[in-house]
């Protein structure tokens, strides 16, 4: 049921993106906002569901396989979208897009993060599948299983590794590039998923753990917002 749910989300998002391109091509800002919102919604909604499958046996093989598979599908179906505020900083820094357009994309990403969380809460409340039973969290689910300093360093390091890889594989054929990126993300999740969740995406982190930002805003914004953004700026400054 969870796999069918995620497949349905991807098909629906694909139809919405196609319709947006056809009908709103002349409205550039609105079209850009909706495309980025739909794409980020897909990633956030599917990742929320994947988190429920983390304890499915055999562990961690099932969750890692699903992470790799759906990351490949995201890469193939969401071309042209960054779905990550840190990724939007690169064209803004290089002058590829204006600050206003970059802010519009980042706003769309956080709007999508909230919508995905609300949507998944509604789906979980229906209890259509076994993992949905009791899935509605009470307060912060506490993804940080280490000290704040170590969590900050882990998210910073993962962001640097991920963003550097993105820059290095730009010249590779897209059919192979998505598999390399998916393999890297799966390896990072395996290495640090039990410590911080290995998110390195501010919008996705806000969608997965909104209550944590409400309860401990300073700590979680430092680890899941500032650390990935700082990693991106380090890459941009050096390279």
TrEMBL record:
Broad class of where this protein is predominantly found: membrane
Transmembrane portions of the chain: 181-205, 217-238
Keywords on record: Membrane, Transmembrane, Transmembrane helix
GO molecular function: channel activity
InterPro entries, alphabetized: AQP11/12_channel, Aquaporin-like, Aquaporin_11, Aquaporin_11/12, MIP
Top-rank taxon, per record: Eukaryota
Location within or outside the cell: Membrane
Pfam family name, one: MIP
Bilayer topology annotation: Multi-pass membrane protein
UniProt record similarity statement: Belongs to the MIP/aquaporin (TC 1.A.8) family. AQP11/AQP12 subfamily.
Protein name: Aquaporin-11
Lineage: Eukaryota, Metazoa, Chordata, Craniata, Vertebrata
């Amino acid at each position: 049921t969870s796999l069918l749910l995620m497949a349905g989300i991807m098909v629906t998002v694909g139809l919405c993106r196609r319709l947006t391109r056809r009908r709103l091509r002349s409205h550039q800002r609105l079209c850009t906002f909706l495309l980025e919102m739909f794409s980020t919604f897909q990633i956030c909604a599917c990742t929320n569901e994947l988190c429920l499958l983390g304890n499915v046996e055999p562990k961690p093989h099932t969750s890692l396989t699903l992470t790799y598979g759906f990351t490949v599908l995201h890469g193939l179906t969401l071309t042209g979208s960054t779905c990550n505020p840190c990724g939007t900083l690169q064209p803004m820094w290089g002058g590829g897009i204006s600050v206003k357009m970059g802010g519009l994309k980042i706003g769309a990403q956080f709007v999508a993060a909230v919508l995905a969380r609300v949507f998944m809460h509604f789906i979980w409340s229906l209890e259509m599948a076994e993992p949905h039973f009791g899935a509605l969290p009470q307060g912060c689910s506490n993804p940080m299983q280490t000290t704040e300093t170590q969590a900050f360093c882990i998210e910073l390091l993962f962001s640097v590794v991920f963003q550097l890889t993105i820059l290095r594989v730009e010249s590779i054929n897209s059919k192979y590039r998505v598999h390399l990126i998916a393999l890297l993300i799966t390896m990072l999740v395996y290495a640090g998923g039990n410590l911080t969740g290995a998110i390195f995406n501010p919008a996705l982190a806000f969608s997965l753990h909104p209550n944590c930002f409400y309860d401990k805003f300073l700590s979680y914004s430092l680890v899941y917002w500032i650390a990935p953004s700082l990693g991106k700026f380090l890459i941009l400054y050096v390279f």
